[in-house]
Specification:
It is built from 8 helices and no strands. With 181 residues, the protein is mainly alpha-helical.
Length: 181
């Protein structure tokens, strides 16, 4: 099945590849939980296999977890890679898939916010610090606009993050409005 072109795969071939991709993803999960950098390779294999059979949700899950590993594992922490993989996840979602696009935008917002915090803590130039904060606010704002009104948990996350961003920007009245939401 792995050697066949996607158009030539039958249901059992697609299922075999989907099962392998899911197993590799699970191996990546275990490796990441153990703090092992080789989780990246497991997730990447899962990502490639999912793309091979046009299983976008599986590819998105792998892209998300690669980004998460690049954020959470100190040995391989790399925010540009996190951003790259979260962007790949966003690119997998159709324009009409507002909820998943909003979630991906929120992930990208979290990267920008983390870059803000790192730049602020490192004493980087004020312009660099504020650019990261503006980018985080923009991304969370876009996420909020796309989030359906019945996705209460997702709305709460975006409002909370915008509250944190506005608090860091010294705009307490606006921050409070988002915290209340």
């Amino acid at each position: 099945a792995l050697l066949a072109p996607p158009a030539d795969l039958d249901g059992s071939g697609r299922n075999a590849i989907r099962t392998l991709a899911a197993s590799l993803h699970e191996r990546g999960e275990i490796q990441r939980e153990l703090g092992r950098p080789e989780c990246i390779e497991s997730y990447q294999e899962s990502y490639q296999l999912a793309l091979h059979i046009d299983e976008r949700s599986g590819a998105d899950a792998a892209a998300f977890n690669i980004g998460k590993a690049y954020t959470d594992l100190p040995a391989i922490r790399n925010l540009p890679e996190t951003q790259r993989w979260y962007q790949r996840g966003l690119d997998l979602h159709a324009e009409h898939d507002h909820l998943n696009r909003a979630r991906s935008l929120g992930q990208l917002g979290s990267v920008a916010y983390e870059r803000f915090r790192e730049a602020r803590d490192a004493g980087r130039p004020e312009r660099e610090v504020t650019d990261h904060l503006r980018e985080a606010a923009r991304l969370y704002g876009e996420a909020l606009e796309l989030t359906p009104p019945n996705a209460i948990g997702d709305l709460a996350v975006s409002h909370n993050q915008l509250g944190n961003i506005l608090d860091d920007a010294g705009k307490l009245d606006n921050a409070l409005r988002h915290y209340r939401e």
